[in-house]
From TrEMBL:
Originating species: Mycolicibacterium sarraceniae
Entry protein name: TnsA endonuclease N-terminal domain-containing protein
InterPro entries (alphabetical): TnsA-like
Length: 261
């Protein structure tokens, strides 16, 4: 393992070695390190690493970039496009990711191999301690270079015992529903303990088949007289987001949507 100074903004790293290397900023010291693939590298907490590359900003840029507030880790994660934000939103909703970092390392393939490098989009640490790497790109924009990079990244992940995923599409209805629910993913929308108990009790009375969202709101309103209906609706959406309640997201959310425990 070697340490090196951080390159300039426009400098892209190269690998002169006859083997694949990983370039990253150590989360503990901030030093930029380059190392070959070893079992030890799999134990680095890449979910804590800062991005290894800058997100370019320039006049006429068409993609949207920003930071997504990841509710499971309560930290912001950078993204470079609306589609990457959608991928983060889906990861957040799944509930098994406890920490995510964006572009935490460069994979540098041996000299003479093309393409020479790739910085995977996201590194995920899951609840059980396992790791996952995700590359994000719409299926209709994937080129041969992208597919080759992803195949080689998958090989690296297999060698290190990480799971690899390509996020290339999402159902339009599911995406719209997630965007609605995501508006209530922050903890400030969690209903007070007394109101949560009342909501759950009303849902349980409906049995295993669940109840319509509109009916649940009406029933819970009669028990949560000190909580306004708007605040109650926010609380129910938050509980669906957090997995405490469930809804079929393949259909548009409406007052007729069935909510189940």
């Amino acid at each position: 393992m070697t340490a090196q100074s951080a390159p300039g903004k426009s400098t892209l790293p190269v690998n002169d070695a006859p083997y694949t290397t990983v370039l990253y900023d150590d989360p503990a010291t901030g030093r930029r390190l380059r190392t070959r693939l070893t079992p030890e590298i799999a134990r680095v907490p890449f979910e804590l690493c800062r991005p290894i590359r800058n997100f370019p900003a320039y006049r006429g840029r068409r993609s949207h970039q920003g930071k997504y507030w990841f509710s499971r880790s309560q930290r912001h994660v950078g993204f470079e496009s609306r589609f990457e934000m959608t991928a983060l939103m889906m990861l957040d909703f799944r509930g098994d990711a406890i920490a995510v970092s964006s572009n935490p390392f460069w994979l540098l393939w041996p000299k003479g191999v093309a393409p020479m490098r790739h910085a995977p989009d996201f590194f995920i640490r899951r609840c059980d301690g396992s790791a996952q790497v995700i590359d994000v790109k719409p299926a209709d924009r994937l080129k041969d270079k992208d597919r080759l990079q992803h195949d080689r990244t998958r090989e690296v992940c297999n060698e290190l015992g990480w799971e690899y995923e390509e996020f290339t599409s999402i159902d339009a209805t599911i995406e719209r529903n997630l965007r609605l629910l995501c508006g209530y993913h922050h903890q400030r929308f969690e209903p007070p303990a007394e109101a949560r108990t009342a909501i759950v009790r009303c849902l349980q009375k409906s049995g295993n088949g669940g109840t319509r969202l509109g009916d649940l709101i009406d029933a819970a309103s009669s028990e949560c007289i000190h909580l306004g209906e708007d605040r109650l609706i926010c609380g129910i959406y938050h509980l669906v987001w957090s997995g405490a309640m469930h809804a079929d997201l393949t259909r548009p959310l409406s007052w007729n949507t069935v909510i189940a425990a």
